[in-house]
Amino acid sequence: MQTIDQAGSFPLGDRTVNRMGYGAMQLAGPHVFGPPRDRDGAIAVLRAAVAAGVTHLDTSDFYGPHLVNELIREALSPYPDDLVLVTKVGAVRGADASWNPAASPDALRRAVEDNLRNLGLDRLEVVNFRAMPGGGAGGPAEGSIAEPFAALAAMREEGLIRHLGVSNVTAAQVAEARGIAPVTCVQNQYNIAHRGDDALIDALAADGIAYVPFFPLGGFSPLQSADLAEVAGRLGATPMQVALAWLLRRSPNILLIPGTSSRAHLQENLGAASLALPEEEAAVLDSMGA
Ligand SMILES: NC(=O)c1ccc[n+]([C@@H]2O[C@H](COP(=O)([O-])OP(=O)(O)OC[C@H]3O[C@@H](n4cnc5c(N)ncnc54)[C@H](OP(=O)(O)O)[C@@H]3O)[C@@H](O)[C@H]2O)c1
Question: What is the mean pLDDT of the chain?
Answer without folding.
Answer: 96
